[in-house]
Amino acid sequence: MSKNSKIKINSRYFPGAIEKKWSKKWQEKGMNEFDFSSKKPKYYNLVELPYPSGDLHLGHWFAFTPADAHARYKKMNGFNVFFPNGFDAFGLPAENAAIKRGIHPKDWTMQNIQNMTKQFETMGTMIDWSHEVITCLPDFYGWNQWIFLKMFEKGIAYRGKALSNWCPVDQTVLANEHIEGGKCWRCGSEVIQKEVEQWFLRITDYADRLIWPEDNSSKSDGEKDTASNEPVDWPDQVKEGQNNWIGKSEGMLLEFSVINKGDNNGLNIDSIKVFTTRPDTTDGATFLVVAPEHPFAREIKQKDVSEYIKEAQKKTEMERKEDRTKSGVFTGAYVKNPVSGKDIPVWVADYVLAGYGTGAIMAVPFADERDREFARKFNLPIEETDFKAKPEGEKTVNYHLRDWSISRQRYWGTPVPIIHCEKCGLVPVPYEDLPVELPYNVDYTPKGKPPLATDEEWLNTKCPKCQGAAKRDAETLDTFFDSAWYYYRYVSPHFEKLPFDTKEVAELMPVDVYFGGSEHTLGHTLYARFFTKFFKDIGLVGFDEFARKRVQHGVILGPDGNRMSKSRGNVVNPDEIVKEYGADTVRLYLCFMMPYEATAPWSTEAIGGMYKFLWRVWNLIQVWLSTDRIQDNADINHEYIRIKNRTIKKVGEDLENFHFNTAISAIMIYFNEFSKNLEKTISKDEINTLILLLAPFAPFITEELWHLVNPNAKSVHLQPWPGYDEKYLLEEEVPVAVQINGKLRDTVRIRNSELKIQNKVEEEIKKSEKVQKYLEGKKILKVIYVEGKIINFVVS
RNA sequence: GGGUGAGUGGCGGAACGGUAUACGCGAUAGUCUCAAAAACUAUUGGCCGCAAGGUCUUGAGAGUUCGAAUCUCUCCUCGCCCACCA
């Protein structure tokens, strides 16, 4: 643009109108619809599906908009990008909220979905809603039931009885992951222990296959993506976390025979088995401890023992874990240490867990701190061990991972497709009768029995086997069951023969990148991997891992640095900010404010800076348009060419690697170069590059500007990503830092053509007065030269 | 207790063996204005100095290196996840 003394702006930047306009146009054109027939390489861009809580909050914006920028970048790079979304619509929170407000959970949920879908529109993502999945609709949960029945057939789903975490207010069983500090994650009430019969998934059968290999280059099950034969790229944090959670430990089962069988009130057990990972310390075992729930403990008729057991059972598991002071009683029984040959006493104590190993341990106070603490408290002997014992025993493997309890005594979930017949037992609902629909008119308030059990009409049915009277299973499935496979359903959301079209899934999956929160490291993503391995076993898919790459985002805290919560009053409402600044500004700020994986507070002031930036971009282009339009590449400005190429490279690499913040910073630097030198000519190509680089982040303003600059062109989001050429990256003169003994003393500009020749560089640098001053009278011992960057003189 | 990530200006952060503090926010001064806001311009890690310049600085301390925010060790602090797992 030629010299213009006064900046005249023809039109001002009003994000509201622009965003509404383009949102509508894109929708009309079906811009975001995935094209299955395309020959371009596919790219499945997945974000964890949101829970329909009522309103989109800032966390949703933070999860979705950088992911959208990545997807848009991929699309501009020639990929056929699949970016679907849906709603995780079943579950307790909906039910609780519905009870509180007196609305039916379904109505409440569907209203929220409608509302949130509208809010999603303002976000300007390229989500293809034609593949939407809503998990509370029979179209989806019927396939939950199908999968459940397959698992039942294979023995993966089974009915078991277990001491479970029970929330007395929500009237439901809770998974360990849903207890926070001994309290229910939803309602905050104290969790108690209760024996409950329920459905389990035998995830422990898959424990070994779910373990991530230590070395990513080896070739066992799980670490290679069989479809592409490329290593699966998940953060170490997740891999380590899951491996620890699975907690495989190899050890030995040792048998200790009871010495004084028969005495002590007719004790009738021959031996006690213990699990140990350190059989080499067996000679140091000076006593045995069994958990209060252990059968041996129950055999003991001594009054102090039975009283101790009673006391221990009153406590919840959580209370036991919180109270770390050791307690226990002597049972009067002795066993023989197979290595030392000594008779050692058997105690009952609640620091031993019934659910791990055999529920009994050999205590080696010399080697184990907990055992030592116990021994000290009760004056039991501590004997040194030389770690050389080799007792005989059965080698075994124990896992920390337990089978996944999927039963919920609640209304708002997938009905378990099983019929309880007095004659035939557990009878699966025939596949052709699926889905077992969740009845609408049910009293879903908590009663201590599953709400579905109160609907007699629904409950009573015929046994498919004997045609006799039978009852449906009144429980519903954990919603983590839904989220374990929803991303398969996205591919073919209306497929009627199977949970998903296996052909299409083979083409589109595995997922290329899966964005989500780190809170799902141990629950959701582990279940999703488990389901994928099950699908492989029943021949539905050909790969082991459902997602090639996992990217976990951090958390946006309130402006005060605390987690946003209504009670703190520090919740930032994205709708209000969008109203004030427009979605592009919010998107830009969320991408720019911090690294995607970081956790940092929202800043009410800093977002203004993003708005200002877009405003300045808008103005610059308005000015450019209002002056004589410069023909393409007229008056080539070499400095601009260099910085343009450098910026294209940087922004592309950053978007590829999810470094959204530095990508935007690079665009700002590029922009500043122009706005600081308004007297210099800017070519159309340079303006277009600015718009194209910004397009993934700020889709609305860039679309508007693109059409102003290129009136007859297609959408900016259908344009190819600009290319760069390495040969333009180098400056004609490069500043080389000069160090004397490692301290920076000067920088000298060296001609590009001379950079490779160290002698010439040294010669140039020694011309500098400053350098001369430091070298005067010194002997140069060594010179280290890093081409184009730094030269270090080591002097005496 | 175990695992894992992180400590850099007033703030969010950049650089991750080669010119520390990019980019943004905030702050200060100026231009414009009756005035204010906005916008624009300049300055903005500390200390010494009128200046040129010097000097110190990436939680603390040591080490490796020509050169360390970056690698190694010890310690301190914080976040997240798990937690009496034998």
Describe this protein with a few key phrases.
796 residues; alpha+beta; four-stranded parallel beta sheet; 26 helices; 33 strands; 35% helix; globular; RNA-binding
Task: Summarize it.
By secondary structure, the protein is an alpha+beta fold.
Largest sheet: 4 strands, parallel
Percent helix, as a range, is 25-40%
Low-confidence stretches: 1-7, 216-228
Query: How far from one another are the termini?
Result: 55 Å
Number of helices in the DSSP assignment: 26
Oligomer: single chain
In the sheet with the most strands, the strands line up as 2-1-26-27
Alpha-beta content class:
alpha+beta
Global mean pLDDT: 87
Give the overall form.
Answer: globular
Question: What is the CA-atom radius of gyration, in angstroms?
Answer: 33 Å
DSSP strand count: 33
Instruction: Tell me what portion of residues adopts beta-strand conformation.
Output: 15-25%
